[in-house]
């Protein structure tokens, strides 16, 4: 009898915790993933809230330059940090032409690891950064098992996806903490949700980004610093060049400028977001499935992308 009561209590607690978790996810779906995109624009401008300068890493292709453009449209001066000088000059010129703001470019190849940060720090020393967007990231060329991934690519993934967000956050937070304001946007990925077979290292780097982001948010909350965890699903950029279907895009796979327009609308308003409301709905439903099932689905999805990649390589060769 006593055993039955104990089991009943444990069962009731488990059901209550499950319900709280589900309701919390539903609340998050509405407040973080849907509301910011349907409410009127910011009450207080980003420049007033955080300062007049922003920096965006990985700002020559894909989401980065589009995010920088959106910030410039809101009156922020932007520092563009990427590896290709010519591309940086072009993006900077386009931004200055479109918005009456200042730009600065910093050439840095994050795959080189520790050596690049002294140069970046020196270049940023006179710039009071209000916003840092840790956007730079790299991906597998195509889905592959761990031993098939070239060692150099594994190091690139670690140096770019893990190293840059860590060191750039350190670099920006010290000044922001002294000024008592600032925003850090760390671009993560839906692949943080579970281990992802055939993109194991990429997904693991994004789990790191999420963990780092949520921890430093707590560390710097009392210094007036806002830390956003921005976790998109698929976006039609060259990162997904292994899949012509993803590169073509669609409603669920927005292009970089559509994505950036939505993501910047959520800046300063929510702490955790996918940045795009349709991604928010997908993120919610992905989380409903148990992890083991998501891992299996991930394997299946990446096997399909792998097939697509080799088919596309073959058809280009003919
Ligand atoms: N696309 C997606 O489906 C997707 C989904 C979830 C999350 N994300 C995340 O979103 C962020 C942006 O991705 P994206 O799709 O815009 O990627 P992308 O189109 O490949 O652009 C990446 C940017 O980073 C730069 N970059 C790459 N390696 C670099 C290095 N070693 N040093 C300096 N700059 C470097 C690239 O420079 P170049 O112009 O020289 O190539 C480019 O400007 C990443 O953190 C990614 O993980 C993307």
From TrEMBL:
InterPro entries: 17-beta-HSD3-like, NAD(P)-bd_dom_sf, Sc_DH/Rdtase_CS, SDR_fam. PROSITE patterns: ADH_SHORT. Keywords: Mitochondrion, NADP, Oxidoreductase. One of its GO terms (cellular component) is mitochondrion. The keyword Isomerase does not apply. Pfam families: adh_short. Belongs to the short-chain dehydrogenases/reductases (SDR) family. 17-beta-HSD 3 subfamily. This is Inactive hydroxysteroid dehydrogenase-like protein 1. It comes from Papilio xuthus (Asian swallowtail butterfly).
């Amino acid at each position: 009898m006593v055993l039955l009561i104990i089991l009943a209590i444990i069962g009731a607690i488990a059901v209550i915790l499950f319900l709280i978790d589900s309701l919390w996810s539903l609340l998050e779906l509405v407040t973080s993933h849907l509301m910011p995109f349907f409410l009127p624009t910011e009450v207080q401008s980003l420049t007033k809230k955080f300062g007049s300068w922003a920096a965006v890493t990985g700002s020559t292709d894909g989401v980065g330059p589009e995010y920088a453009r959106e910030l410039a449209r809101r009156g922020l001066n932007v520092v563009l940090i990427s590896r290709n000088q010519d591309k940086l000059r072009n993006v900077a010129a386009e931004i200055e032409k479109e918005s009456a703001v200042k730009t600065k470019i910093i050439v840095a190849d994050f795959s080189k690891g520790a050596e690049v940060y002294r140069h970046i720090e020196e270049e940023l020393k006179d710039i009071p950064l209000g916003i840092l967007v840790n956007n730079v990231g790299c991906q597998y060329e195509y889905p592959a098992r761990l031993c098939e991934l070239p060692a150099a690519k594994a190091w690139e993934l670690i140096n770019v996806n893990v190293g840059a967000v860590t060191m750039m956050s350190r670099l920006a937070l010290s000044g922001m903490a002294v000024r008592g304001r600032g925003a850090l946007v760390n671009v993560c990925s839906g692949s943080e949700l579970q281990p992802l077979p055939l993109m194991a290292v990429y997904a693991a780097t994004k789990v790191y980004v999420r963990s780092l982001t949520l921890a430093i948010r707590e560390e710097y909350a009392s210094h007036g610093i806002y830390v956003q965890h921005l976790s998109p699903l698929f976006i039609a950029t060259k990162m997904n060049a292994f899949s012509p279907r993803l590169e073509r895009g669609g409603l669920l796979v927005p292009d970089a400028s559509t994505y950036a327009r939505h993501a910047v609308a959520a800046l300063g308003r929510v702490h955790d977001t996918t940045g795009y409301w349709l991604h928010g709905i997908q993120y919610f439903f992905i989380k409903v499935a148990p992890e083991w099932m998501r891992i299996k689905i991930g394997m299946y999805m990446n096997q399909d992308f792998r097939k697509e990649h080799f088919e596309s390589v073959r058809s280009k060769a003919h």
